[in-house]
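Most newcomers find our protein records easier to grasp once they have seen one. To make this concrete, we reproduce a full record directly below:

…
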Amino acid sequence: MSQPQRPSTALLDKYRGADFRPLYTGTVRVTGGEAAHARASGVACSDDGKLDVRLRMPAELGGQGEGTNPEQLFAAGYAACFHGALTLLAARAGVAIPDAAVTAAVTFGRDPVDGLFMLIARVRIELPGVARATAEELVRNTERICPYAKMAREGIDCVVSLD
């Protein structure tokens, strides 16, 4: 198997089109499993078969915690995307960040506005060996281009439909 290659910094080149230009779509289907409830016993499978995970309620929500959960999956996606954008920006700026780490914590809780549910995300970046001012600029610029950070800040175009 060949070694994974870092994407080109050309991904940072600005797009000048009038409409959204799709580059990739990840599609995942979730079913309810034994309890007919995706958070309690669901299965999440991607259309290409690369993702196939059991979803389980964390112990903190009354489950047994014997699988992953939506908050962990979202945190993984957020951290990976932020790290990737950060790496591209650092490469373009000529800043070495071989030991960079991004930790995303996604908290599921009660929404004081409607009494139902909401998520809060906290992202922590570690850039050992990078001057503080340089690190702050990289993080600030990454927040501007990372799609997950933009989604968390501005929302997302979302269409829910019934088949």
The mean pLDDT is 95. The chain is about 30% helix and 20% strand.
